[in-house]
């Protein structure tokens, strides 16, 4: 997935071979006063490139920093397309390891030097590495460990596109049961961890607000509400990595059925290993003039503000940030009813169409219905308001006792 927002570059980059150093406090006085003890939260992010898990962590880090909390990002790859979005004043620390499998000791050393109050990690493989790194520390120097599960665990353990995550899920029950707190994006994922991985229910909380819409994006969308709509009639947009779990094959086949009845075109935004296969099926179905693969973008809102309907055909989704982004734009949504995000984001179908996974005909029919039904754009925008970075930061401050 793509990251949106303003271009903000961090001025801090410490390598463990040298001194970690202190970040200059640029938060305003009022924000600092809102936090009584100035805790230090460290985010462990595999790399400053990637998708939703990395993006969300950066947005959370920025939002916590804006409240006056000291924030560091520890990462194996400090350079990447996401670095420009790290706020000034958030320290970036390079954990000197080429792979997560060899990162445990360097990560533990970084934590020992920084002495954060809380270590926050996302994704199965980084979560396991973070757990192992903290266990090398004495109880006196060990931070509280907060692990965020960002997907549908029982399905991702077999279908996650990254092998290291699939392997890490074998240890998830043990690791998550010993974390200080586990955060999930959905109630479905919470139940999954309890029932299928044996994680104690009292250790798991559902994030009721997720870091999707940051302040610059909110301001941009608010300004857009005051200008005339510029939507392209019949334009369908899908946004996501071109990989098997997104099931673009079903989407293209559904579109081939739809276009027989409804003048429309489909734009698929994203890049990934499935591109050659998708190009082949587009050619086989003679849809080259109707279906476009645009590649990746840093600005999904450029397409969401033009689209009549956002379509998601995924086999599973941790949350489905793009659904929330579409709602924030007032764009109609049709999604597969996959585990677990879409049903919860779309409130059981109240905010958008839900269809069975892999059902070509049902997807085609739901898209046609969405195209022919007036969209209550104001209601969709209101539904997305709970998923701002500031509300997500407030949730963490309250539930992790950071204030």
Q: If classified by CATH, what would the architecture of the largest domain be? A: 3-Layer(aba) Sandwich
Span between termini: 31 Å
Radius of gyration: 21 Å
Question: What's the level 1 CATH class of the largest domain?
Answer: Alpha Beta
Chain-averaged pLDDT: 90
Estimate nothing, just give the exact number of structural domains. Answer: 2
Choose one word for the global shape.
globular
- Give the percentage of residues in beta strands: 15-25%
Low-confidence stretches: 1-36
Number of helices: 17
Q: Into which percent range does the helicity of residues fall?
A: 25-40%
What does this structure look like?
With about 400 residues, the protein is of the alpha/beta class. The chain is about 40% helix and about 15% strand. It folds into two domains: about 15-210 and about 390-400, Glycogen Phosphorylase B (Rossmann fold, 3-Layer(aba) Sandwich), CATH 3.40.50; about 215-385, Rossmann fold. The protein has 17 helices and 14 strands. It has an eight-stranded parallel β-sheet, sandwiched between helices. A six-stranded parallel β-sheet has the order 11-10-9-12-13-14, with helices on both faces. Helix 11 (about 275-285) links the parallel strand 10 and strand 11. The longest helix is centred in the N-terminal third of the chain and has 15 residues, at about 50-65. The protein is globular, with a radius of gyration of 21 Å. The two termini are about 30 Å apart. Mean pLDDT is about 90; it is low at about 1-35.
